[in-house]
Amino acid sequence: MKQLIFLLLAVWSVTATQAQHKVTLAECNGDTVLFLKKAFDERKADFIGQPFSKVVEAWKAQLPVGRLLFGDTGIWPTKDEDKNLITDADLYYNTEDEITSKRLNRRPYYGLGVSFAPPYRHKTRACWDLQDAEQSALGPQLYEKLKDYIVTNIYSFEMQK
């Protein structure tokens, strides 16, 4: 009986350790696409229901935030206060200039899509203005605005030529 309990504890311990292991870019031999798949797609459950700050921390531990784009509610809601509220964010490790170069040369580039749960609190335009003011895709003030949004979905994607 003691051996069975010991065996179960050992299996549980190994499983728990593997679940906590964070994937690194080095483990993926510098392959960013593989890293996105292993660190985010395969570990989706670790991020869903968590604040956006957890995604940003995992991203920034291995990659720079080169570009951050937003999806929003658009202009269709009937109330002005519900228009253009951020509903999701796309993280890219390439900068805007690098993405433009890839597009002009018909080369793919990759990113990470993150969807948020309501309530949606911030207007897209205000966040763009912060990016301009901070001269950063994700500066400290913008991070403060977005860090507590709750993640509902996360996925890596490829943008084609």
Shape: globular
**Proportion of residues in helical segments:** 40-55%
- Proportion of strand residues: 15-25%
Radius of gyration: 19 Å
Helix and strand pattern: HHHHEEHEHHE
Strand line-up across the major sheet: 1-2-3-4
Question: Averaging pLDDT over every residue, what do you get?
Answer: 89
Give an overview in words.
This protein has 161 residues and is of the alpha+beta class. The chain has seven helices and four strands. The protein has a four-stranded antiparallel beta sheet. The longest helix has 19 residues, at 2-20. It is globular, with a radius of gyration of 19 Å. Mean pLDDT is 89; it is low at 6-18.
State the main characteristics.
single chain, 161 residues, alpha+beta, four-stranded antiparallel β-sheet, 7 helices
Please outline what is shown here:
With 161 residues, the chain is α+β, with helices and mostly antiparallel strands. It has helices at residues 2-20, 32-41, 44-47, 52-60, 96-104, 124-134, 140-146, and strands at 67-72, 86-92, 109-116, 151-159.
